[in-house]
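From the pipeline queue, job 12 of 40. The input is one protein chain; the requested action is below.

Action: predict structure.
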Amino acid sequence: MSGPTVAITGLGMITPAGHDTAATWDGVCAGVSYARTVPELSGCAVDFACTVDGIDLDAAIGGRTAFRMGRYVKLALLAAREAVADAGLDPTTWDGTRVAVVVGTSSGGTAGLTEQAVVLERRGHEATSPSAILLTIPNMPAAEIAIGMRATGPSMAPCTACSSGVTALHAARDLLATGQCDIAVAGATESVVYPVAMAGFARSGAAAQLGPGDDPSVLSRPFARDRSGLVVGEGAAIMVLERESDARARGAAPRALLAGAGATTDAYHPTSPHPSGAVAQRAVEAALRDAGWSPYDVDHVNAHGTSTQLNDATEAALISRVFPQRPSVTAPKGVLGHCMGAAGAIEAGLTVLTLQHGVVPPIANLDAPAVEFDIDCVTKQPLYTRADRAVTHSFGFGGHNAVLALERA
């Protein structure tokens, strides 16, 4: 899409690796998985995950509104506050009519719905929460951010499964490009670490299986020969997007530029990627075309890399076809697990940091990619290298493919 250059001026994250962007970045660069056994999942077929620990979310939110928010909403709001502060913006003084909020999620508050269903069955409808609906519906992260930040411009809650975060950033970019807002607070959030969801991932065959004596922290190993499935994670990442000219006019230094975006749909199977990878490849090529780049312009790929057999094989083949120069490849799900709807936004944020700091984080639990994968995976230690242009892939259930092209500011 032709139009003004869009700058990323603020970034906020809360993930299993840390409660803000700096801590998350340090944890991802260390290349050690945060997967652990979760007591609340005791007795489940999958009783391990990468969770956000060591923080009282209600206390961090403050005030008297946290009671109406699901965990996924609280994570989004905290990440949004960090992003807006990082951008040097003040919601008490900005023109809220020109501020958009676009926050995606895959499962939304299904954890809250499940909990309330149990209450209903055991104790009757009078015992259910008056906030039961608010704890469930997927637009609440966008709504609560808009309420808390007096943002009365367009707001959206995209859901494209595991691509939701990239879809949200794509949509926010387009709102800026078409003049519907001057500032967009955009990203994604997810929290699905609860028994029903974990049983679903196990039954679908997507989740890694813990064998006798296995340590959960070694299970997510993207692009490894012996990869066995994904490890579920949770978290949120939010960015502030502005037209570059507006950002520089107010003296803001962009972290990176959002140069292009592409999206396609496999239209093949509810859970499996198309084995040819051809439709996903078209999303990558669309993002490059939108940015005005050749594949040879790309220095780095932040891969979807779920640690599942089909995704990693399809994606590795795609990368080697599109990028014969073999750019560096990382896959953060080895460290953070698969944060589902939030994964694409988190990984876009990490790609921004790679461009900004000249550091590519290593893929956790990977000594070398499977021999059939002709890609340059970063393993064991961070790679210190200047990267000027990068792409980040996000592929979701239902065949949703979304890709961003990001450029060093």
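Job complete. The first helix runs from residue 21 to 30.
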